[in-house]
Design brief:
This protein is α/β, with parallel strands linked by helices. Helix content is 40%, strand content 19%. The strands form four sheets. The chain has a seven-stranded mixed sheet with strand order 6-7-4-3-2-5-8. The protein has a seven-stranded parallel sheet with strand order 12-13-11-14-15-10-16, with helices on both faces. It binds adenosine-5'-diphosphate and magnesium ion (MG).
């Protein structure tokens, strides 16, 4: 009897057939243990009983045939072109498979190799042929793949399918039977195969129903491990921790809401209630607040901060950039002053840094707004009770932990705010340890944003410039966002600087232009933002510095140059800078305009899909879903995002239903057995299989 945790500690070299040559290659590909190789599962299966004989395959439609290489040859008819031809035969006929510029095929396909070819069968001068078919090597020369159903493994580090099949054939009988950490009643209830059967059947199924059921079990396992880790994490940082039971009686929040120049939306009121109920519990809050750009997250943040302040605690807001921190401060400080709350600003370049640091230490500052400067050594709070982290995607998990550590004794409450809409599947994995609140309603009377594509260079752009000019005449302002330069803030700055000069000299000599980019000194940036806010600048030429949170009510136009070079969520964030006013009609018609400048000729399919999505929707959640579809699940949050690393078979989009079930079971298990003392094999497996990922999950 062996467990997956045990097998994950057995080096892959123990498997017969791995040896000195294959071992390093496998390791490089991340297949390091016996468990890893057993979980290297087939990409697909070829069911011989469903494969038509070559002579009977219909022409010109996608089909798969199986046969043995009879002869292989390589020609170089001219410079820059190699052609490998393989004659592949079955009992009924032969087909000539042609590969272009893949010279390695000659060595890969020695005479006698058994292969599957997938492509369109054609007939040419009486012979069957397939041009550039997809090919899977099923067995090496002189051998035949056994079994009716042949597994096809993904090629990894140059190791082809049949080699994996052999290594796994060797490993499987020695590893079996494989222990199941899940209780039988759970398997019955969820109609899951037991693990031993599942691992055997994924490699050697007897039918496609077999392999489907096996896959379902293994996908469940991955999702279950991840959710158990998240449930444990939540337990450790919330339920097992002593936090502050904030008083929600004192009424400061009500006073604040009454001083607002607008009525809070129902969504704001609902989320404020969720936050306050959580803050009143004697455990630290860990809550994620999602709300599209403009949904009014700041009001919620302030309500949370004041809930702490009214009980004598301090609050902190951490923003990702100085511009944003200052803007929060400028927005909040006057309001705070009216209700007797003392606020401070702490950034690297803030004028009275020392005084603010002193005020935090002696408790004379109630609420501080700042950047990373907040989590530096030397910053101490007298009684930190609530921390708000804005625009979470810019911060790592480490930083939210560091901020919390600024608390003296009791764990402060934590509210994490993000404007990047996170589809449910992802919020259940990436942020699965957090409680979640969502602002799903926009403040009323928002002007609409109409988005249009503009071809560069032509009359289209002239019309855009005319529109900017007529808006300026009405006292409205515009952004011109300059292209991203990959990996170089310097080059991006240079291109924005050049565009600023060009527009001022050639296009808008009559208007007041400003420039904002990441390479400017903080005081220069502050100065430009102040003048823009005060209406002294008509057109702000900028880089993506403005992406997050910059908020100027009178802006009605945004031009995004080379828009196809931006990601979809970034485009949405940028566009969200428009229509920030709270109800006034910006240009009579109440319409803001976003122009996406891109050369239709040069667009990639993805670029075109992104721009199309932008034109057709203003809804952040819709766009996030569209983004997932365009880019595929794996890439959206990057590979470095822990939690996703253990997901090899599971695809959170496709396996969404199973994810919901796994999450439910995992949280129920941890609720019943908070430290898994009664389920040691589940715990061992989570630690063993999540590897580095688990460190992250157990961080705070
Ligand atoms: P975000 O969620 O993007 O951070 P903000 O909190 O910055 O949004 O709010 C965007 C704008 O909407 C601000 O100008 C704010 O004053 C305004 N606002 C917030 N809530 C309301 C409301 N309930 N009614 C009208 N305007 C609102
Ligand atoms: Mg905001």
């Amino acid at each position: 009897m062996s467990s997956l945790a045990y097998l994950s500690r057995q080096p892959v070299e123990l498997v017969k057939g791995v040896g000195d040559r294959m071992g390093p290659k496998l390791r490089e590909a991340g297949i390091e243990s016996v468990a890893d190789i057993l979980l290297h599962v087939p990409r697909r299966y070829i069911d011989r009983s469903l494969i038509a004989p070559m002579a009977e395959v219909p022409l010109d439609v996608e089909a798969t045939v199986v046969g043995t290489v009879e002869k292989v040859s390589l020609r170089r008819p001219r410079r820059g072109l190699t052609i490998v031809e393989a004659i592949v035969r079955d009992d009924t006929a032969f087909v000539v498979a042609t590969f272009f510029n893949q010279p390695f095929r000659e060595r890969q396909l020695p005479e006698g190799t058994e292969v599957a070819l997938s492509g369109k069968m054609q007939r040419f001068r009486g012979r069957l042929q397939m041009k550039a078919p997809a090919i899977d090597v099923l067995a090496k020369s002189g051998h035949r793949a056994t079994g009716r159903i042949v597994p096809v493994y993904p090629t990894v580090a140059g190791i082809v399918s049949w080699r994996f099949e052999r290594m796994i054939d060797n490993a499987l009988p020695r590893a079996r039977p494989i222990d199941d950490p899940l209780p039988e009643n759970l398997l019955d209830r969820l109609d899951l195969l037991d693990r031993d059967t599942a691992i055997a059947a994924i490699h050697q199924p007897e039918s496609s129903a077999d392999s489907d059921a096996a896959r379902r079990r293994l996908v469940f396992d991955e999702l279950f491990r991840l959710e158990v880790a998240l449930a444990l994490q939540k337990r450790r940082q919330v339920d097992d921790q002593e936090g502050i039971a904030h008083s929600v009686e004192a009424g400061l929040v009500e006073t604040y809401l009454e001083t607002l120049p607008f009525a809070p939306t129902n969504a704001q009121l609902r989320v404020i209630a969720e936050v306050r109920a959580d803050m009143a519990r004697p455990h630290p809050m860990h809550r994620l607040l999602q709300g599209d750009v403009g949904s009014g997250k700041t009001v919620v943040a302030m309500a949370a901060l004041l809930t702490g302040v009214q009980g004598g605690y301090q609050g902190a807001v951490m923003a990702p950039t100085e511009v944003l921190a200052e803007q929060h401060y400028l927005n909040l400080a006057p309001m705070a002053g009216r209700i007797g709350v003392r606020m401070g600003l702490l950034t690297a370049s803030a004028p009275d840094r020392e005084a603010v640091i002193a005020g935090l230490a002696d408790g004379t500052i109630d609420v501080v707004v700042g950047t990373h400067a907040l989590i530096q050594d030397g910053v101490h709070f007298e009684r930190l009770g609530i921390a708000v982290v804005d625009e979470q995607h810019r911060f790592g998990v480490h930083q939210r932990v560091q901020l919390k550590e600024k608390a003296v004794d009791l764990q402060p409450d934590l509210l994490i705010m993000t404007a990047t809409p996170i589809p449910r599947t992802f919020s259940m994995t990436l942020y699965g340890d957090l409680e979640q609140s969502k602002l799903d309603e926009m403040p009323a009377h928002r002007p609409d944003v109409v988005t249009e594509l503009v071809q560069p260079g032509g009359g289209g752009l002239e019309a855009v410039y005319d529109h900017i000019r007529s808006q300026a005449a009405l006292g409205h302002q515009s952004y011109v966002v300059c292209p991203l330069v990959e990996d170089s803030a310097k080059l991006a700055a240079a291109s924005a600087t050049a565009e600023h000069e060009r527009l001022q000299a050639k296009v808008f000599p009559d208007l007041r232009l400003g420039l904002l980019h990441g390479q400017m000194r903080p005081d220069e940036k502050r100065d430009v933002m102040t003048r823009f806010r005060d209406g002294e600048i008509d057109v702000l030429v900028c880089t993506t510095v403005i992406e997050v949170g910059v908020d100027v009510a009178a802006t009605t136009v945004m031009v995004i140059e080379d828009a196809d070079r931006f990601g979809l969520s970034q485009l949405h964030q940028l566009r969200g800078r428009l229509a920030r006013g709270s109800g006034e009609d910006p240009d009579g018609g109440g319409v803001c305009r976003c122009y996406l400048v891109a050369d239709a000729e040069g667009l990639t399919d993805e670029g075109e899909a992104r721009l199309g999505a932008m034109v057709s929707s203003n809804d952040g959640f819709r766009l996030a879903e569209a983004d997932l579809e365009i880019r595929g699940a794996g890439t959206v949050f990057g590979e470095t995002q822990a939690g996703a690393t253990d997901l090899r078979l599971a695809d959170v989009l496709r396996d969404h239903e199973l994810l919901v079930v796994a999450r439910h079971e995992a949280f129920a298990l941890v609720a019943r057995d908070p430290h898994l003392t009664g389920h040691p094999d589940v715990e061992a497996e989570v630690r063993a299989m999540l590897g580095d990922g688990v460190e992250w999950l157990f961080l705070s």
